[in-house]
Amino acid sequence: MSETSPKLRAELEGIPTYKPGRPAAAGGAVAYKLSSNENPYPPLPGVMEAATAAASSFNRYPDLACTDLMNELSDRFGVPLEHLATGTGSVGVTQQLVQATSGPGDEVIYAWRSFEAYPIIAQISGAKSVQVPLTAGAVHDLDAMADAITDRTRLIIVCNPNNPTGTAVRRAELERFLDRVPSDVVVALDEAYYEFIRDPEVPNGIELYRDRPNVCVLRTFSKAYGLAGLRVGFAVAHEPVAAALRKTAVPFGVSRIAQDAAIASLRAEDELFGRVGTLVCERNRVVEGLRAQGWTLPDTQANFVWLPLGERAAAFAQACETAGVMVRPFPGEGVRVTIGETEANDVVLKVADAFLKES
Ligand SMILES: Cc1ncc(COP(=O)(O)O)c(C=O)c1O
After folding, report:
1. Is the CB of 37 under 6 A from ligand 1?
2. pLDDT for 276-321, tens place per residue?
């Protein structure tokens, strides 16, 4: 038997592994997970019932085309069915989009630091990541991103609001940027946290896409709608982009449980958005509390805050963990803290106050 190892694609070498937010410690002190930008609320009763009912038929494959969900999305967002595609979370849809647009020799532009799945997905497809640093204020530098376009650019991702900094780009600057992008380069507006935006100047990508055939809006049921564990997201884009996303989807990737829960969630938006409103109030309370303590942090439009702690990021995360709260450190850069239950946010404020006084 020869000892040569199986041939795998060279592109896979050195791919950073996706680091999920660490779970809350089991047992012991009260522990909260503020490390994955999840919704802290349990499923709404109606959504739970829809998911449970769908579970009774999981011996069957789900509807490949997600017909009922697509119809619901089409009505809810006022977009034609042909302009929709679904996937296993918006990470799944992002992967479909990169596969549909970019291969070896192509370039994918996105801001950095931004969502950590982007470099992984780009590298798997063999495309080159072109990372454009955020501004000093931790905001997308759209001028620099436009300057980075070459004739090899196939896709530009704008994460709005940006994970992990929470900062958002506004309508005028985004439109100016879109005007500079060649019409054959796809621009993905990753709006995973759209529902948490309160700045009226931050645009709804679904309005921007309508007269821009190269714009693709990515949305998810994982955050505001609270279905992170069910894996369902969607894209809104003109054809042929949406059609390409349907082609590159994993067949039957979105389970029937996820499809039915997503439909029930859309029908329960009043209650869900009430919860989002509560989280936004908590966010404001946390931001104001931190600033009153003397912290400097960027404005956030998402369900998390960013503490640009630099070298002290790991120490702060450790202090939070000791106090029973898991947060998400980016060593050497900062810490992202999800807005969660009031009690969890209180612990963060307490730790932050002590941390600042000690340092
Ligand atoms: C910016 C951004 N996009 C997309 C996602 C993916 O969410 P999901 O795949 O659960 O829909 C996340 C999740 O953390 C995110 O932060």
Report:
1. yes
2. 999 999 999 999 999 999 999 999 999 999 999 999 999 999 999 9
Quick one: which H or E segment has residue 255? none
Which atom of ligand 1 is found nearest the CA of 91? Answer: 9
Return the pLDDT at 30. Answer: 60
- CATH fold for the domain made of 18-43+269-358: Aspartate Aminotransferase, domain 1 (3.90.1150)
Sketch the domain layout of the chain as residue ranges: 18-43+269-358, 45-267
Per-residue pLDDT tens over the stretch 171-184? 999 999 999 999 99
Architecture of domain 45-267: 3-Layer(aba) Sandwich (3.40)
pLDDT tens profile 250-272: 999 999 999 999 999 999 999 99
Decide whether any atom of ligand 1 lies within 6 Å of the 228 Cβ. yes
Closest-lying ligand 1 atom to the alpha carbon of residue 162: 1
Give me the helices (H) in the chain, please: 45-55, 67-77, 89-101, 117-125, 142-147, 171-180, 205-208, 241-247, 256-267, 269-293, 313-322, 342-358
Q: Which atom of ligand 1 is nearest to the CA of 115?
A: 1
User: What is this structure's pTM?
Assistant: 0.96
State residue 190 phi and psi, 5-degree precision: -85, 105
pLDDT at position 2, please?
65
